[in-house]
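In response to reviewer comment 3 from the previous cycle, which asked for concrete evidence that the modeling workflow produces usable outputs, we include below a single protein chain processed end to end. The sequence was submitted unchanged, and the resulting structure tokens are shown without manual editing.
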Amino acid sequence: MATTTGTTIGQSTPPRPGRVEPAQAALGALLALEIVIFGAIGTNFLTVTNGFEVLRLSVEIGLLAVALTPVIVGGGIDLSVGSLMGLAAVVFGSLWRDAELPIPMAAALAIGLGALAGLLNGLVITRLRIPPLIVTLGTFSLFRGLAEGMTGGVDNFTDFPSGFLFLGQGYLGGVVPAQVPIFAAVSLGFWVLLHRSTVGRGLVAVGYSPEGARHAGLRVDRLVTLAYVLSGTASGLAAVIYVAHLGQAKADAGLGYELLAITAVVLGGTSIFGGRGSVVGTLLGLFTIAVLQNGMRLADLPAELSGVLTGALLLLAIGLDRRTGRASPTTSRGHAHVDSDEEWTVKNSQVAVICAVILAAGAIVAASNVYVVRSLTDRLVGAGGPTAPSSATADASAPGRRPITVAMMPKSKGNAYFIACRKGAEEAAEELGVNLIWDGPTDPDPARQNQIIDTWITRGVDVIAVAVENRDGIASVLKKAMDRGITVITWDADAATDARTFFVNQATPEGIGRTLMDTAAEIMGGDGKFAIITASLTAANMISWQEQIELRRAEKYPEIEMAVLRPCDDLQQKAYDEAINIMNAYPDVELIMAICTPAVPGAAEAVKQSGRDDVKVIGLGLPNDNKRYVHEGITKAVILWNSMDLGYLTVHAAKALEDGTLKPGDDRFEAGRLGSVDIRGDNILLGEPFTFTEANIDQFDF
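The workflow returned the following structure tokens.
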């Protein structure tokens, strides 16, 4: 039995250079299993194009992850990298647009800002001896707050030159994404730093035992500070690539990326307690997550399942690290004997448990796939049977004709308004024999919309229909889809006109603005102050409605004044908070106009709990969400259209475009139960908005 005595820094049996660790082998096996499963069940998964697409969509988070690896190996943590991305992005945009600096200089300064921010983290941690978790939690809020302060939460930077956009959207040789070589070079640099330099060995020693490292003569503070400087530098570089990828610089750039990056690092075998880790493991963790997310969408499986599996694996990795990754107190600091044979037995058991989880994950994926295949089979085979809903369905499933695939995206899946739209879309899909894919971000997020659309392009869907969150940020990926021969339409909120064929418009901005302002004026008696709560300060439809509200106010009601405009991010709780803040800051406001569906009940609940009988609420909302507030007299009117009809009309428009029965230049087309629908230019019009009041709201159920 081999033993060691004396003081040691590190593991009792340090891995030899180039040796594959058991955790890495297990993760590699999981990645291979994912590739085999999704290769069998995913559309166009095993293609070179999709492989490079997975790489391209992993670059920004990957840059953060490889830079976080030495930080975590050194016993630290950096929660600020995502927020720093947002700050570096808006600084880069401001330097280019407002300061009129050349793109290379603006990019260099943004990356330099990242390095300085990392230096700030490192100095506060090492000089003031404050735990890294506390320091970076503080700078997490500081950096994001500075970014939002610079832009007022409203401004975003777009119209970057095409040469710069090529960095995030172009392909070298028409195949390799332009940002991939940068990611490869950075990853190689961090591998050399961590595994082939004295700096890397020093960070391992610091992570395992900071005091032992000091006694060994290592400059611990310098090593730790260097790790944070490199982490900040990588955040600045990721911000520049992010802007090139999306075509816009916004304060919310990198939102939530820090958690994904840390997940990749820890899943790759890096000990969250420090002292052990590898860049190769981090890359394996990154690609395991990326392939899982990509494969889920190409296989038509619920995207949420990837989060469940990733979370389970992460908890397992941390649990095993806590249980076996560090020795007992009497051995971990080198005070007693270490039995290397016993250590190897523990590692084997660790591999066995991870392999069991791999098999369980595969079983879950396989079971989900069986369910989806059965659902699709029932839809396609049953369409021509005796239960077929219409002759259109039977025709679509006739021999030699496959049903078209329409990929439809809301701004956010959890919003009640978009849930109602989905019901109408599914009704039309069943009626027409269309294969409908419904997917989108859980919260309004332009970056997530882009990623999902990229997956749909790889899959080769026939039509993409998007409710656009940010028209400038999504234009490039929609144009890419059109270049690949995919029909693109928008609905609910529009993109640039050259990035889609038609816009399925729920109502004209003029009609919505006029109805809202006229209703507000009637309630207020022609004078006073009102406030607006919107979903987003950058959403195209919200902006156009606000413009029309202001035009109507200035034209007909000059005695009425708008006190403030506040966003709620499509969240009811945030709308509640904003309404409370408005009533406190502007006590003379008589009416709150909420122009997104979660904001109407949120504002009404705030008014109710405040006891302010002098404040009324109106807005764009669903009748079922607002009935009780309408009957209580808090909400005087709810203005909307039939959201189920909007989803229904969108699918009909998609099918008609593919069939050739709807073409640019048409002024009408037949849309099932909706009959003949008017087209104004390239806008397909659902109709005029409808006003729900106490007298009629109980007649509606959606």
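The CA atoms of residues 60 and 238 lie 5 Å apart. We consider this sufficient to address the reviewer's concern, and the full set will be provided in the supplementary archive.
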